[in-house]
TrEMBL record:
Domain Polysaccharide pyruvyl transferase: residue ranges: 34-290
Pfam family, one: PS_pyruv_trans
Lineage top rank: taxon: Bacteria
Protein name (Swiss-Prot/TrEMBL): Polysaccharide pyruvyl transferase domain-containing protein
Length: 356
């Protein structure tokens, strides 16, 4: 879908909010370029709807439809988490809500590090009415910054309404990410000159190809499910000589979640590819392309054998392939999933009550 066409629903939604201002603004990366970011806001919206509170999504950022360009009211706001613990998005919040931080709750945020944040951003985080992080490390990071009272809660996407789908037999779902790879006009090549990083892209690509080919030889269907446009482009190159069913990127949460839920096994790379598979209880095998995936594994107790680290793939991709071919995948037990979903919804309710 054309970049500008994807912005049309955002502009339409903002125009509607100008006409009928919602009680609570849900602020996040709702740019439709990453379906995982859309799931964060939809998870919050689903809880507010149950509480009979009207809400509208607003895009954090500096683009043509960002907070600074479309300021709608100065009322209550819930920031819908994700990797927003950086100076640029926090500065956008300070500019709009710096004088009224008590009107703001932040749920499920994560940080790259505690470096590079201005005093104004740190003071804002300290002053908001409610603050939670989606992994324990970030709670510790905030404590080191002198910000007390931050809570842990799993990713907001766990709050999405529960839907049941019929699972296909012998259907492998895959999600790929062009980590440390760049398009040179002919194909993807290593894009990182660091000795420790450069081997990952080619080794990761070979691992994906071998896993997909072996499943096909064993009589499985293999489908790639993109969570961004770039995932779609990279997959078309990775699997160009392999008969993998390639889905088109869809920024809508429900179709993407349904595609994951119908698989009988799933190999995830993007963070929310993990979350969707875990929520749908599809056996998950994980490529940890970023620390947030490793932290999720630690928080949930996913066995080491079911996640391949960046270093493992780079140094011995063949061993990762053998391991993944012999593993069924990790499934969240019913009771643990129910507890997680309930705790995430309660976390959002608590945030709402804090600003009410």
């Amino acid at each position: 879908m054309n970049y500008y066409l994807r912005k049309v629903p955002i502009v339409f939604d903002l125009l509607c909010q100008h006409i009928d201002t919602p009680e609570v603004a849900i602020i996040g990366s709702v740019h439709r370029e990453n379906v995982g970011d859309m799931a964060l806001s939809e998870g919050v919206a689903s809880v507010l709807e149950k509480e009979d509170v009207s809400s509208g999504t607003q895009l954090i950022g500096e683009g043509m439809v960002g907070l600074s360009k479309w300021p709608i009211g100065q009322g209550k706001a819930i920031v819908a988490g994700g990797a927003l613990g950086r100076e640029t998005p926090l500065r956008s919040l300070v500019e709009k809500y710096g004088n009224d931080p008590h009107q703001v709750a932040i749920v499920g945020i994560s940080f790259w590090s505690n470096h590079g944040l201005s005093k104004a951003s740190v003071d804002f985080l300290r002053s908001v009415k409610f603050l939670s992080c989606r992994n324990y490390r970030d709670v510790d990071t905030l404590t080191e910054m002198g910000i007390k009272g931050a809570k842990f809660a799993y990713d907001n996407a766990f709050a999405l309404p529960v839907k049941e789908y019929v699972r296909d037999k012998r259907r492998l779902g895959v999600n790929v990410v062009s980590r440390h790879m760049a398009w040179d006009g002919h194909g993807y090549i290593p894009a990182n000159n660091k000795e420790v990083e450069r081997p990952f892209g080619p080794a990761y690509t070979r691992s994906l190809q071998n896993i997909a080919s072996t499943h096909l030889e064993r009589g499985w269907d293999v489908v790639h499910i993109p969570f961004t446009n770039e995932d779609e482009r990279f997959a078309s190159w990775v699997f160009k000589d392999i008969p993998v069913e390639l889905h088109t990127y869809d920024p809508r949460v429900e179709p993407t979640y349904r595609a994951v839920a119908k698989c009988s096994r799933f190999i995830g790379t993007r963070y929310h590819a993990h979350i969707f598979a875990l929520k749908a209880q599809v056996p998950l095998l994980s490529f940890s392309y970023a620390s947030k995936c490793t932290l999720l594994k630690q928080n949930l107790g996913i066995p080491d054998s079911m996640q391949a680290t960046h270093l493992e793939v780079s140094q011995n991709g063949d061993n990762v392939v053998r391991r993944f071919l012999n593993e069924t995948g990790f499934v969240l037990p019913d009771d643990q999933l129910t507890r997680i979903e309930s705790s995430v919804r309660n976390n959002i309710r608590t945030a709402l009550h804090a600003i009410s």
